[in-house]
Amino acid sequence: MNAIEQAYWQKFKAVSDIESPLFGSSWSFGATVEMADDLGQLVLEGKKTGTSSAVVFYELEGVAFPTENKVYDILLNGSNEPIAILQTKKIKRFMFNEVTEEMARLEGEGDLSIAYGQAAHRAFFKAAFTKEYLVYDEDKLALLYEEFEVVYQ
Predict the structure, then answer these.
(1) Which of 82, 93, 126, 147 is the most interior residue, by most CB within 10 Å?
(2) Per-chain mean pLDDT for the chain
(3) How far is CA 91 from CA 50, 62, 67, 81, 87, in A?
């Protein structure tokens, strides 16, 4: 946690009634400044309360899967500035073709449909797989879906 994130965390702790909140990590959505800003703004507006990630990237990076109701994460914008503190409330592992209408709606993007969500995620994951020299196979693409709550902004 850098100094700016630490100051944001301290402000959160000062106004929160959560006893001894446990810090998880700092992160942003997407792979570009624009995606981080756009998706972060949807979170701040209350439109985005869900997100999906490819399981393979947790495994490649050696990062633990998120946990439900345990830690608090700092959400960053495209400039790596804190914009909110989130807590993951629900986690579901599923395959790419098993996304539900509710999941698509909670992702908060586009017209909130499965078709839009899958098209956006397909483009994102294809690019991410290519960057890592991985073979993209939608039929075998395991995802981790998180529902989260903004606890501070």
Answers:
(1) 82
(2) 95
(3) 10, 18, 7, 26, 11
